Each structure stands twice: as C-alpha cells, then as structure tokens.
Amino acid sequence: MDLTIQHFIALAPLLITSATIVVVMLAIAWRRNHSQTFLLSVAGLNLALLSIYPALKVAPLVVTPLLHIDSFACLYMALILASTLACVTMAHAYLGDGKVGYPGNREELYLLILMAAAGGMVLVSAQHLAGLFIGLELLSVPVYGLVAYAFFNKRSLEGGIKYMVLSAAGSAFLLFGMALLYAEAGTLSFDGIGKALEATGLPSPLASLGLGMMLVGLAFKLSLVPFHLWTPDVYEGAPAPVAAFLATASKVAVFAVLVRLFQISPAASSGVLHDVLAVIAVASILVGNLLALTQTNLKRLLGYSSIAHFGYLMIALVASKGMAVEAIGVYLVTYVITTLGSFGVITMMSSPYSGRDADAMFEYRGLFWRRPYLTAVMTLMMLSLAGIPLTAGFIGKFYIIATGVEAHLWWLTGSLIIGSAIGVFYYLRVMVTLYLVDSKLPRHDAQFNWAQRTGGVMLLAIAILAFALGVYPQPLLDLVLHSGLQVPS
C-alpha cells in the first residue's frame, strides 16, 4: 500500500516515541547525564501525547494490514503515554543523583521504558495477529531488564528471571494458539478470523483450542488466575517505578488488544470460551482479594489487588455487549490513576535509593506524623481502589456493575460485590497503619531534592485528578464515549 501524509499523521505518536528512543540512545552514547536523559524522555513523551490530537483528526485509518488507528487506539495510546510519563518522573526521583543515588548506570532505564511504551502503542493499534505478537514482544522484552534493573538486589534478579521464563512460556502458548487459529480460519486479521468463525456458527474444536491457548498467553501477561503466580514476586522485586509501569501501561496495552480481538471477532468469545472467561473472572476476583488479606508487604498487596481488578474488568469483557467497551475504558483510566498514585508513594518513600524499596507495611506506621502529604495521597488511593464514593475508583466500579447487571451476569456481579467487600478490609488496614501514633516517630516532613519535588508535584496532580474524577466524572465519560471501537471496512 502507498503511505500518504495522513498515514504518517496517524502514526505520529508511535513515530515520535520511536524517534525519542533513538535520540535518548545517541545522547547516552555521547555523554552520560541523568538529568539530560530524563528531560529528553519527558520532552519526547509530551510531544507524542500532543500528536494524538492531529491523529484523531485523520482517524479511523488503516495503516498497513497490521495496524488500525482509530479513536479507541488513540485513547489507549494516550493512557500508555501518560502512564509512562508518570513512571519516568518517578524513576528520576527514585534513581537519585550523586553519591546517594542508584549505584549503577541510570540512563538505560529510561531507554527500556520508552521501548516498552512503543510496544504497548503497537499492541493497542493491532488488528492482525502478527501486529499483536510484534507489539507484545516489544512490550515484554524491555520489561525483563527493567524488573532486574536493581541487579545488586537478589529479589530484583529473581523477579526478572521469573518474569522472563513465565513470559516466554506465555508467548509460546500464544504462538501455538495463533498457528491453530490460522489453520482453521486461513487468515491472521481479527476481522477475517471473525468472519471465518461466524460462517461456521460456534468455533470448531480446533479454533476453540487455538483461542484458548491464545487466552492463556495473554492471561499470563494480565496475571489472571491461574496464571498469576509470578505477580507478587515480580512486583516485590522490581524497582517501584518499574512495578508501576508493569501494573499500568503494560496491562492496559494487553487488555486493550484483547477487547479489540473479542469485539471485532465476537464469535471468538462464544461457546466454551465464554464460560472459561467467566470462571477466570470469578477466580481472579476471589483469589486476588483473599491472598491480599494476608500480605504485610505493600507491593505484594498491590500485586494481588491488581489480579482482582483485572478480574472485575473480565466481567465487562464477558458481557461484551451494550456499554461494555465504555465501562472497560472508564475502569482502566481510573485504575491507572489510582495505581500510579499508590506506587508513587512507595517510590517517594524509597528515595533516594538505599538498597531495597520501602515496601514493608511497618515502614508506613505513623507516616502521617512524618510525611503528611504522602499520607493524604496514599489514603485517597486506598479509598479509590476500594471503590469508595467521591473517588475515581467508585466511578469505574459502578460502570462495571452496571455492565454486569445489563448483561444479566448475576454470578459475576455477585462475585464482584463479595470481592469488593473483602478488598475494603485490607485497604482500610493500610490506611489505619498510616495514622497510628508512635511516640518514637519524628514529627516533621523530610527535606526533598528537586527530583523528588518533581515526583511530589506529579503525585499531588494524580491525587487531585483521582478526587476530581470521583466528584465530576463527566469529562472522562464523554472522552471514553467518543473513543468507541470501529471495525475496519
């Protein structure tokens, strides 16, 4: 096909991110400078975010058979870029400067995060199984290095190895599933697969097996039960900004492509697979919440919490009709904001870098008396994760419940309510710990350097956004409503 100027405008966010990767790489080769690398990364990500507006003007547009740039892709590209921007800002505060900072090379972390973000952007635009696999691998491979970036910490190395091995196993399942699906449908495009499966009614046993194996591969990336075993160890071992990226941008990209596949090829999620998705949803909600109850490590708790939250999202995926796509969009935006805020507090507590992250619950005992503003942010994030009214999390959870009720998925909706009730307990436990009084604790706020102040400003912005969307969610609802999924002709 001939590429026109419209195609380049549509691809601008991805092209600018890729150009930023090259510029950052050359800058590191020319001269190592932590602040310079950070500023170049931030500038590139902001330009990529701004370029989404002109991309929307030419959307929907098919750019090669692999990619389809529409308002749905633009929404999730914006979400990935915003998450990456927040994680890069956290990383700058986390890695520190001078003798008190991270002891190894700091600059490559930005390079790896940018590469992973580019992979996520390919993923949310994919309309072809080859595009899906390219995007998924470009997203996953840099994350192996990111998780193990704190190479002198054995938990970080252990997390990196576990994620690499299990992610490779997930990719193998995905490829095998794609091969079986191609054997049945004779095409790799989502639209072609949908038409081939629809022509035969319910998917054949071969197609069902292929789709099932693909689901296993994607469920590994989303850490859905029973493919969740890597999650707590990887979250605990990864540096806090990397764990934030893994919990937000990485999972958003994978879930968005799953939504696109099942919406363009509705026959793909029918039959036995529909029941399998429902079972995975219930298991993820209950297992994630029950295991989080026993945690005394905040990053592990957030890891199990993320399993439960993607279980909630699976309810909308199972419903698939009505307001399901809008509910998923609203929930993912609110989940990303809240998760970034939670990991942002851990990042600020762990700065400057000093061996391991401050992720043990006892380290947050009486935090209110030392760092009041961090306590305020963490309190708001816990309330939002619990789905308490006047927070962004309530709006997201309300939409998922409404979708479940609309589709008459009573068992799934019931499991969401039970899971949310369990979740309130451990979120409140974190909040209570923050306000405990200990006479030995110093009653003053710590002094921050400029990098940490930048991270602090970003955290406050996230907290204000989480509260503002809880009080007045209409701008978010309008944005998601106008970012519906369009099937390419």
From TrEMBL:
Residues 126-422 form the NADH:quinone oxidoreductase/Mrp antiporter transmembrane domain. It catalyses: a quinone + NADH + 5 H(+)(in) = a quinol + NAD(+) + 4 H(+)(out). The chain crosses the membrane at residues 6-30, 37-56, 76-96, 108-126, 132-152, 164-185, 205-230, 242-264, 276-294, 301-320, 332-353, 373-402, 408-429, 450-472. InterPro entries: NADH-Q_OxRdtase_suN/2 (IPR010096), ND/Mrp_TM (IPR001750). It is a multi-pass membrane protein. GO terms for biological process: ATP synthesis coupled electron transport. Its EC number is 7.1.1.-. GO terms for molecular function: NADH dehydrogenase (quinone) (non-electrogenic) activity; NADH dehydrogenase (ubiquinone) activity; quinone binding. GO terms for cellular component: endomembrane system; plasma membrane. Pfam families: Proton_antipo_M (PF00361). It is found in: Cell membrane; Endomembrane system; Membrane. It is an enzyme of class 7 (translocase). Keywords: Cell membrane, Membrane, NAD, Oxidoreductase, Quinone, Translocase, Transmembrane, Transmembrane helix, Transport, Ubiquinone. NCBIfam families: NDH_I_N, PRK05777.1-1. Belongs to the complex I subunit 2 family. NDH-1 shuttles electrons from NADH, via FMN and iron-sulfur (Fe-S) centers, to quinones in the respiratory chain. The immediate electron acceptor for the enzyme in this species is believed to be ubiquinone. Couples the redox reaction to proton translocation (for every two electrons transferred, four hydrogen ions are translocated across the cytoplasmic membrane), and thus conserves the redox energy in a proton gradient. NDH-1 is composed of 13 different subunits. Subunits NuoA, H, J, K, L, M, N constitute the membrane sector of the complex. This is NADH-quinone oxidoreductase subunit N.
